[in-house]
Specification:
alpha+beta; 5-stranded antiparallel β-sheet; 27% helix
Length: 515
């Protein structure tokens, strides 16, 4: 591992020297031009002309990067440039860990003045590696961890750097909660801005439904940046867009304000069926009961190569009530069942798996379902799981229905309100920290995901932007349905120069060449 990263640093240093001779151009991101090199301040960099950018644009003073800055020749660069999914490796010119909103303003201005491709990052769980970029700047907000909770109004304003575990733990200490996903290391902001669902979504709605305000750093004029508030009274169209399409499309969210809910305790149930012999009965019973159960009950089903797992959380419920609601599923076969009742923060922390125990590489395919799977679809799941490329591979589901069907005041860009459940096949392989350890399995895993997802197409619809489908042709409507045209209009209003872009970003309505 040390040799691998040493060679990486050597390559970056060679790139650095080569670039000083003016030969290196930013290749990541459309329209990236001259690159400012590590060690060169914006004041020393060549100015970028604003000609043709539009009348009335105001030039800013040359920006200087502030915050905690990591460059290719720094000791921490290897770790700082690596995401959770180690299948994707990128080599940014500089990573800025913002310590406050002004650091974000400075970094965005610097990137624009020097025509450097940029990406925004928080929890590093971008599942196609799109929060990182070669030869560009990564603006990382993961160290913005402020929190202010008003227990009288049940409103919480938090920095965009909180992980889901940190947010759940902090709120639970005050007997409060908001919808989050089940993986604690995922960034709260990233999950929320793409929609956000987990055990509490049937009770509280999507995570984005509870988002009532945000502080956002936008591109301004030809080369500047500015800070705005988005809520129901200020830039309400931007708030609507952030609720389900906010990741990397319009600006950089630095803080989020949520309406949170009282939650003193939960009942947590886990059941395990050995083998796949009960798959048909378990899956069919779950899909026909979980989406219409008491709204306080949220559940997930996971199918592995040699076992089926059920996880369920009943908000403000007792063990006996939870088991009664789950009785139709638990009566199938002879599952091993365990239960726990307690504070949501303690329960949530208890089912976390350390990142180092996860495989290094992952590939997923996301999809929603509005009608129960027929028998042949369940058979497909069993068939593909028996041929899964690794022990960690699984078919994951999340129950919908309940509060997910109701949009909050002001609406959201998240369109999948009529789904009865969400699902995804996922393949995990390779060993963390060992570059190339999964290379032999990578083609098999990617082919398995592609074939599995294609086989399920007749039974599913749409896709989840937080689990992007890289090969999908009509991803725009798969993620956002009929909301896509409105999102393009909002993009044109708040980011007309398309500063915030990545492989499947929303283009402004005025961008030529896009239908």
């Amino acid at each position: 591992m040390a040799e691998y990263w040493r060679s990486l640093i050597e390559r970056m240093l060679i790139m650095h020297e080569f670039s000083r001779r003016g030969a290196l151009k930013a290749t990541a991101g459309i329209g990236a031009g001259a690159v400012v090199l590590p060690g060169i301040s914006a004041a020393e960099a060549p100015a970028v002309s604003a000609a043709g950018k539009g009348p009335g644009d105001v030039k800013c003073k040359p920006a200087k990067l502030t915050g905690r800055i990591v460059r290719p020749n720094d000791a921490g660069y290897a770790d700082a440039s690596l995401g959770w999914d180690e299948l994707f490796v990128h080599y940014p010119l500089v990573i800025v860990y913002a310590q406050n909103t002004q650091d974000v303003v400075n970094a965005l201005t610097w990137a624009r003045q020097n025509n450097v491709a940029l990406r925004v990052r928080s929890g590093r769980h971008s599942l196609e590696g799109w929060s990182n970029v070669d030869n560009g700047i990564v603006i990382d907000v993961s160290e913005l961890k402020s929190a202010r909770i008003d227990t009288h109004s049940n409103v919480a304003t938090v920095g965009a750097g909180l992980t889901q575990l940190e947010a759940v733990t902090m709120l639970a200490k005050k007997d409060l909660a908001v919808t989050t996903g089940s993986e604690g290391t995922v960034g709260l902001s990233g999950a929320t801005l793409g929609g956000g669902f987990g055990f509490l979504n049937r009770w509280l709605g999507m995570a984005c439904d509870s988002l009532i305000g945000a502080e956002v750093v936008l591109a301004s004029g030809a080369e500047c940046a500015k800070v705005v508030k988005a809520d129901l009274h200020h830039n309400s169209d931007l708030l609507w867009a952030l609720r389900g399409a906010g990741n990397g499309n319009f600006g950089i969210v630095t803080s989020l304000t949520y309406k949170v809910a009282p939650l003193k305790s939960v009942a947590y149930v886990q059941a395990t069926w050995n083998g796949l012999g009960d798959l048909h009965a378990v899956f069919d019973t779950w899909q026909r009961t979980a989406p219409i159960a008491d709204n306080r009950l949220g559940s997930q089903l996971e199918v592995h190569r040699n076992k089926i797992l059920l996880f369920a959380v009943l908000a403000e419920g007792a063990e006996t009530e939870a088991k009664k609601l789950l009785a139709p599923i638990l009566s199938v076969g002879s599952p091993v069942v365990s239960t726990q009742v307690g504070n949501w923060g303690d329960v949530y922390a208890g089912f976390q798996i350390p990142t180092q125990a996860d495989p290094a590489n992952w590939k997923f395919f996301s999809q929603f379902t509005s009608k129960p799977f027929p028998e042949q679809a369940i058979s497909l799941i069993g068939s593909f799981m028996q041929d899964a490329p690794s022990e960690a591979s699984n078919f994951f589901t999340q129950s919908f229905g309940g509060a997910v069907r109701r949009s909050p005041r002001g609406g959201t860009a998240f369109p999948h309100r009529d789904a009865i459940f969400y699902s995804e096949p996922g393949a995990g392989w390779g060993t963390r920290g060992q570059a190339g350890s999964g290379d032999a399995i990578t083609p098999q895993a990617q082919a398995w995901i592609a074939e599995f997802s294609q086989a399920l197409r007749p039974y599913v619809n749409g896709a989840y932007v937080n689990v992007p489908n890289i090969g999908m042709q009509e991803w725009e409507t798969a993620y956002w349905g009929s909301n896509f045209d409105r999102l393009r209009e909002i993009k044109a209003k708040y980011d007309p120069y398309n500063v915030f872009q990545y492989e499947q970003s929303i283009p402004p309505a005025t961008l030529h060449g896009h239908p």
